[in-house]
Structures are given as C-alpha cells and as structure tokens.
Amino acid sequence: MTSPHPIDRTFTALPYRRMAEAALARAQDFHVSHADFRFERIRSQDISVRDGRLQGASDTEDIGFAVRVIHDGAWGFASGVAMGPESAVRITETAVRTAQVAAAMTTTPVVLAPEPVHHDVTWVSSYEIDPLTVPLEEKVELLASWSRRLFDAPGVAHSSGSLKQVVENKFYTDLTGTTTTQQRVRLHPQLEVFGTDPETGAFDSMRSIAPPAGRGWEYLLGTGYDWEAELEALPRLLAEKLAAPSVEPGRYDLVIHPSNLWLTIHESIGHATELDRALGYEANYAGTSFATLDKLGSLQYGSPVMHVTGDRTVEHGLATVGYDDEGVQTQSWDIVRDGVLVGYQLDRSMAHEHGAALNGGRSNGCAYADSPGHIPIQRMANVSLQPAPDGGPSTEELLSRVERGIYVVGDRSWSIDMQRYNFQFTGQRFYRIENGVLTGQLRDVAYQATTTEFWNSMEAVGGPDTWVLGGAFNCGKAQPGQVASVSHGCPTALFRDVNVLNTRTEGA
Amino acid sequence: MTAPTPQELVEHALKASRSQACTVLVRSSTRANLRWANNTLTTNGVMQDVTVTVVAFHHGAEGTSTGSVSATAASLDQVGRLVEAADAAAAASEPAEDAAELVTGDATADWAERPEETSIDVYADFAPALGESFGRATAQSRILYGFVDHEMTTTYLGSSTGLRLRHVQPSGHYGCTAKPTDLSTSAWVGGSTRDFRDVDAHAMEAELVRRLGWAQRRIDLPAGRYDTILPPTAVSDLMIYAYWTAGAREAHDGQTVFSARGGGTRIGERLSRRPVQMFSDPAYPGLGAAPFVTATQSSNLESVFDNGLPLARTDWVRDGELTALLQTRHSAGLTGQPVTPYVDNLVVSVDGGTGSTDDLVAGMQDGLLLTCLWYIREVDPQTLLLTGLTRDGVYRVQDGEVTGAVNNFRFNESPVALLDRFSEASATGPSFSREWGDYFPRTATPALRAPDFNMSTVSQAQ
C-alpha cells in the first residue's frame, strides 16, 4: 500500500533545487566524471519516562546537504549546513579539492555502474499519522500512563519507557538527470520492568518485544501491535523470570521466536552478505565476511529450508525506500536460496566491479547515508528469512517436535566476530521445553554457535502465521560511524543441538 | 550575506525565548577524514556543522517543566524557530523531576573568540607518507585498511542566568589494519591525537610489519582460561564500558553492578584489593575535555538543569574503593552523595605499575598477549559480564618472547571483576579503545595481566 501523504511542504519549500543546480554546474567546471547533490532533513523526537513520570523529551532536526564528486578517478565528498547557492558552490569546491588530495592515494579508479535515469520522481512510505504532528502532551500522557501501570504492578520495582520517532526527507540529484524526493517515517517504542528476588537479592528485567516499525503514530494506538496484551503480561513474565532456575549448560534444541531470531539474522546473514565487507572495505572497523565472493553459488550457508531475501521494498520496513542514495530504484532479490549463498547487497561502484554475476551489472539499491554530513556507503537492505511455503508449521507444532530444548523469546545481548563466524546471543525470556511442552522459564541462558553450523542445524521454519517483521534502529557501520535502521522478517524456527552457556558460571 | 557567529546565535535565542529561563548550546564543528582499504583510498570527506540546542524552562504551578530542541542551524531565522519549538515544548510538558536552580555566572575571557576549525590539510604530512606505505605494501604482499579522522568542535553555552562559556575540543584518531595478501592473519595499530602532528605513518607501518612477522608461526589453542596480557587499548575497551555503566540513579534503583544488595549503591565498597585508581579530569594533560556540563536532554546520566556546572577531577575508584558514581544534582539528592557529573575522559592507573606492555611480555613465562577487543556487549548487568572477541592479533608468549600468533577467541569477562583479579600492571599512558574510541577517544590506561582470562570459545575469524 502506498501512503496517501504528499511530500511535506515545509521540506519542498526549502531552497535545495537552486542549490543543486549551482552545485552541479560548479562541479562540471572541474570536468568531473560524476557529481551528485543530496539534501536532507531528518527530524526526530525522543521521549523517555521512568516510574510513570516524564524523564526527558527532546527534538532534533538535522538539516544540510552534501556534494559528492568523482574527479580523476577519486572520490571527493564535502557537506555543509548553510543554505543557498553560494554555500552549495563553496561546498562543491571543497569536495573537488578533497578529491584532488585523494587522487594521489587512489590506486583503483572509481567507476559507477550505469543506472536508468529517473526524472523528478517522489516516494513516500506507508503510514497513517506523522508522529511529529501529534501533540507532545498526548504522547507523554500515553507513555507515562503505560509506565505508571507497570510501576504499580505487583513485583515491579521500577519501570522505564522510551519512544524514538523519525521523519526523514531526502532530495537527490546527479549529473545524469536523476532527481528523487522522498519521505519516510519510523518509530521505536520500548517498555521495561525491573524487579528483585526477595530471597536472593538478585535483580532482573523484562522488556517489551514490540519491534520498531516503519509506521506512524497509529502503531502506538494498536495498528500492527497488541500493546494491551504486552502491558498485561510484562509484570507476570518478570516475576516468573526472577523465580526461574538457572540453566544447565549443554547442547539443546532451540525453538527461536522471531523477536529473537531477527537479530541473529541481522548479524550472521545481513552483515555477512554485504559485498563491501566481503571485499575488505570494512576490514579496519566493522570487519570482513567469511562469505567471500568466490563462495557465491557454492557455500552451503544453511539447511535446504533456508530462503533469505534482501528487500528494500517491503511495506513498513525500516530500510524500505523508493530510491537509494545513488538514485537507484530499490528492489528485492535472493541472498540464500535452498540454503545456498546466491546473492549480495551492493552499491553502484561495487556493481561496476563485481555485479555482473550478481545483478546483471547493476546495483541492487543498497547505498545509504544516515545524515547529510555523511557519505553514502553500502548499507543493509531488509534481510529476511522466508516462512515455509504452503502453510507450514505453527509455533506449537515446532515446539511439539522437541524432546529437550529451550524456547527463546526477545533479544537482549548480541555479539559476533569480525568475519561473522562465532556469535553469542541472549534473550528476554527462555522457556524449558520437555517432551514438546513448555515447562517454565529458565535464567542465565546464552546460545553460542558458528554461523554456518547454526543455519545448517535449522530443521524447520514456521509458516506465514509465525512470521514477524522485527528490526533495529541502531545498526552501526563505517568510519566515520553511521547508524541505520533495518528490518528483518522471520518465522519461528527450530534448530537442533545448539551450544547453550550459563552466563552466571561464565562470569564466575 | 555573512553567517551569524555562534555568539550571535546564542544571544538571539536568549532574547527570543518567551520562557522564564533558557539555556542555549551551540556546537560548531569541522571534520576531515580519510579512509582506505585494499591499498587505495576509498572515501574521504570534509564536513561542517553547526548544531544549536535550546532548552526552555517553564515555571508552572506544580513545578518547572522543560523543552529541549536541537537542530542544525546557521541563521537567526532557524534559531528563532527552534526557540518557538522549545518554548512550546516546555509549556506542554509536565514538571521535570530533576528540576533545580539554573547555574549562574558570567562570561569567560574567551567567550568572544571564533570557533576553531580543521581541514583536509591536517593530513599534509600524513597523507603523502600513507601513499608511500600503499606502494610498499603492494610491493611486499601486504594489504592496508584504515581510517584517520580529525575534528574541531567549539562549544558555546549561554543562559538567561548570565553564563557565557566556551570550550574548544580537538579530537583525532588513527587506526590501520594490515593483512598479508592471503588474508591468513591480521594486525592493527591505532591511537588518538589532538592535531596529527604526533602521528607518523611510517612508524605505524613499521609496527604493523613487526606484528605480521609475529604471525608467521601459527598456533591453535582451545578455549579456556589463559594468563593474558591486555594492552592499554584492550583495557580501555573494557573500562569505558564500566564507566558508562556507572550511573548513580540506576545503581541506586538496583539495576547495575554498582547496586548494593538490599538497596542503595556500592559506594564505599572495595572493588579491588590493589591500589587501583579510576578517575576523570577535564584538565588531564593531553586528554583535555570540557570543564563544564553540556547536557542537551535529561536522562539517567545527565540533567539539563546542570548545564554549566563546573567539572573537576573526580575519583570514581580510589585505592580500589568505589568512591563515586555519575551523579546529576537530582540523583545526588536521591542517593545522598556528592554531585559528580559525567566528564568526557577517563584515566585508570595502578600505583606501582611501571614499564610498558613489552615489559609485561618480558616477564611472562607462558601466556597470551592480546591486541584489542571487539563487539563488546553486556550479558549480565548484575555482574557486568561482558562478551566480545579478540581481534587482529592474539600472540603466544613463551619465556618472555612472542613466539607466534594464536587463533581468536570469544571472551566472557567482567571489567569490575578484572580490577580485583589482575596480577600485574604497567605504567599508565594514552590509549585508544578499538571499539569505543571513535566516540570516546580520551583515555589513559595501563596494560593489565589477568591470570585467568576467560576465553569462552574459539573464533575462526582471521
């Protein structure tokens, strides 16, 4: 469904078109082989509550522009905040100067894969109510009332809540004539309760598993999520967790709920199939990938039930957009098919060098900059595990197949090595499975595995009814650091014989 | 048309505000960076930014409420719109629980000075030398990947109580990873700097070559607890996390490793039997940081009411005893402790710690030497158990010599527990956290030797 909203007039009234004309004209004076101009306004609001009271609220607006050129085969990038054509010209000259400095150290000339030209197109994400148009009092009142209700519940010592809201406008144009104007909305509500075991003095918490979403304020009013059920359950779930026994470390079958599995997908598949990582461009920071280009078409990433897609078009996805930051229309494609690595995420320069075998020599629309002050880099699409076709099993049916195992719900701690082999994840709650039945919560659980062993141990994926679009607001990458939002959909899935640690004894 | 100065932006905002009180923060920054991989430059940039934060304070019948609005703003009109938004937000909010009298004062002597700037020219010496390193690396079958970044941020703080404060913060860091062309191993060096005059690309390359040489012999070791030397960068990786967790409010509420069982905080409790010192000091030589509070919004760790509050050396751990946690005036009232706000640097030292990492290596019979840690995340807040991985070089030490490179490991360890378990410490010197240094570059730490560092599992990453 396409949003009925037009591009915000307070954005279109800004002088970016005149600035773009001036910038691109000045870039041509230097005979650049490529130049693009990007103008962004990112408005956000954060609200935090604690024990039923407002703790902090702040509004932020990041507005500015960037010019990127290729000159003598080298990138040059500069950004600024002062409005007007004169400022755009000055920043363009700085970008060219930067490219001239860079040319001496650029041993591989930069070339972009060609793209169709899109003449002045617009795209707006799917949402009903722009959250930034809702009065602050109304939002604080709702969050504070939720926090107060949790704080007043038996066994809850403290409660906290937060709401992040972002409305992003972006204008892009380049020397080929592509011009795009876009608008998208996303938000992330979280609630958490804290408690103490009266006998041991140990403390713990239970956090909501509601995912961040590319939706508007209607999400907080119940569209797309059952907040009443979550609020009702959190205190009871915390009490059960505080009284739960500590897990016996060992090997267990795991049934993993989408609220936990999305993050394992993000770390072990999403990042591992970014082509810039595979090529070494992130080697000094975020790391590389075991899934190198030579393994395309042959790496048995996971079991035959594993089908993973990259998708920048899914409705309400956090990485969903109409056109990327290089003017490429977004797409969806296979990354893992029948358990085998078949695709990567790439941008235009990588598509030029390596895309012939991947996407017919074209980018698949994965260039993104998180602010006007940052250069676009290859960022993650919505990378999702597909459910079983033709119905598929329910979560209950998956649980029924387990004799001795653990059901994992909600994310908490996550970590993976620099080539995406070894990972360790915890969660919000863990239930013991005995003979196909849940028999109460466990504590202190972490699962640890190697990426390909883990995905090859996946025996079954749930049906479409178990599929949930989870995700994150805060995926970090690149130097200087950039933060991107991304969604990951997945069904509940069953994994056999996974290593489980007891985090209490690990720290002893 | 000339752009308004930061001081003009501050005064315009204060004059425009219709709230009973107002605080304005202007951050003017320039940043220049170079990034490289596969022996070629990949990206670069020069960024200019001016961010204005207006905090409006509205005195109502039930207390004082606040509105905080930040935005990129380079004109008086933009600032005017910010003020309107902040005033409206303050009027619409409920009373703030951290309400307090605003800090008072006058203009400091440097208030009228312009923002300081950096440019791509900060790499005038470094860049050509790096280009030479690319050539040598290609000729000698090495691949270099790295990043240099330099930023100058000038902060102006003005308030309706008369405060006019200015602070210039230079921040810079460098890091370079090297691999042989078969990608069979990896080495890294990095550090922080204030102006790049002390960064030598040739010296950086020489250290990488030395470390790759250590890796010519490969040794596979299983998971287990190992006598391990953590160099200053790895100690910084861990201790920054402990510092960021040291909020008094959350400790007092029973949610962190610094919470006392049964209620309250662990202030006054001995965390280490050793003479460990952990402190922050805005005037620490080479690590200078803002000497006053700059809070854009209230949270567990900071309060907008504290803006302008002077900062001084604060001992978090003195002689092994926890002496302070991060306090706003509000949390100090809740916990009955002195006001000790967040300071933007951290020093860890051990009395009697002498020599360098190499000296610790020379005294080790059989153990491991790390390079740095990565992907560090909290597993258990009760013990501050952290997990993460070794990265870009774990080396076997035998009879005081490095004898080869070992596989990487996942670790599960608590920095608070390590403060009591280490067996030796070097002298303290400037360090740079591999994971957090981009955001928190001002640290000084020793190398520590931990007799039983928990290498939980083996990582295949190279």
From TrEMBL, chain A:
Domain Metalloprotease TldD/E C-terminal positions: 249-500
Positions of the Metalloprotease TldD/E N-terminal domain: 35-97
Record's keyword terms, sorted: Hydrolase, Metalloprotease, Protease
GO MF entries: metallopeptidase activity
GO cellular component term of the entry, any: cytosol
Record keyword Hydrolase present: yes
BP terms from Gene Ontology: proteolysis
UniProt name for this protein: TldD/PmbA family protein
Species the sequence originates in: Nocardioides mesophilus
TrEMBL record, chain B:
Top-level taxonomic group: Bacteria
Domain Metalloprotease TldD/E C-terminal: 224-455
A Gene Ontology molecular function term of the record: metallopeptidase activity
A Pfam family reported for this protein in Swiss-Prot or TrEMBL: PmbA_TldD_3rd
GO biological process: proteolysis
SUPFAM superfamilies per record: Putative modulator of DNA gyrase, PmbA/TldD
InterPro entries with a match to the protein in the record: Metalloprtase-TldD/E_C (IPR045569), TldD/PmbA_N (IPR035068), TldD/PmbA_sf (IPR036059)
PANTHER family the record matches: CONSERVED PROTEIN, TLDD PROTEIN
Name of the protein in question: TldD/PmbA family protein
Annotated organism of origin: Nocardioides mesophilus
Organism lineage: Bacteria, Bacillati, Actinomycetota, Actinomycetes, Propionibacteriales
